[in-house]
Amino acid sequence: MELNFKDGAFSKLKNKKRFVSITIIAATAAILCAILPGPLGGLKYYPVKHQIAPLKSILPKWPSRNDSLLQFASIEFQDRLFGPESIEFNPQGNGPYTGLGDGRIVRWMPDRGWETFALSSINWNREECDNRDNPRRRVRNEHVSGRPLGFRFDPRPGDLYIADSYYGLLVVGPKGGIARPLVRGGRDSYQVCQRSRCSSQSTLPTQARAGIAVDLPCSLSRSFLPEMLHHMVIVEGENTGRLLQYDPNTGNAVVVLRGLAFANGVQLASDQSFLLVVETTNCRVLKLWLKGNLTGTLEVFADLPGYPDNVRINDKGQFWVAIDCCRNRIQEIMTSTPWLKSLVFRVPVPLSWIMYVVGEKMYSVVALFDKRGGCSGGWKTARPGS
């Protein structure tokens, strides 16, 4: 019998073949996802819903001039310092000091170059921790070496207070050496943080006789590899971060804030009237009022176009915020649909591929904010990965 194309028989046949092909591909993908491990390697993974300010509502308030001034900056000591986190100068203006991925805090000496100033862990040893030819192995041994992520000097005695992601709140004298733990006991102390293998504490401002630190513990039941911790916190969207205040008189830390999503930086205002706390996962900076009629009030200081990583104050009372930029609509959708995020991160392909597909942009922005949260300028790198 002659096939009459006008009757649509050929079109129906094509549609049927297309449907069968799509079904086979979908079934194959489902089987592979069920059998093969995804980029998270079979780790326990519980994404949760969280809301971030839409990018379209932020960009109109963002400075139209976004210079690439950092294109003139150079990357120094790239093969000599692994994973530098936080920068500080001592009360005499010497330094800088920075914390490395191998657990050391190093300082710059003009006549000698970089030298080890302090260690977070008494268990630090050269065989496990100082393997400069194999950074991945060093990361796997973070639980031995420690990971100093934030520190500040007390200007009067010159002691250096350290926030370490494995060993908690520490202090070391002006001459350096092995840091000693500060917090004793208490359910909400850093000892709990240490047992739960918390992932990220950040900059620790010390003012008068009180120190304030940010810590971000993970669930006690987790079995994440150290290098996966901060990735998992962002991917899951969990909000187990806390802001803690340490009292040197009692040796205990009290919880000031709970429910922070990847707490990743803290800074006191110049007049100590408020405190800024960075939330990386939620792409924003929070303000906690410490004085006046609004004491104890928490509000959004600034919503950001990307993922912030630390905050520092300058001599004018303005705030510098480093941002990994920029997020997009796909990422915003995934924050409100945990089931979709769970599905995507179970696809058996490298994590870098997934990040590329969802549109992660790998460049950095340094933004300057006034006391009210207004952004007066942003300076970005001109090349990816800088």
Automatic annotation (TrEMBL):
InterPro entries: 6-blade_b-propeller_TolB-like (IPR011042), Strictosidine_synth_cons-reg (IPR018119). Residues 233-292 form the Strictosidine synthase conserved region domain. It is found in: Vacuole. Pfam families: SSL_N, Str_synth. Keywords: Glycoprotein, Membrane, Transmembrane, Transmembrane helix, Vacuole. Belongs to the strictosidine synthase family. This is Strictosidine synthase conserved region domain-containing protein.
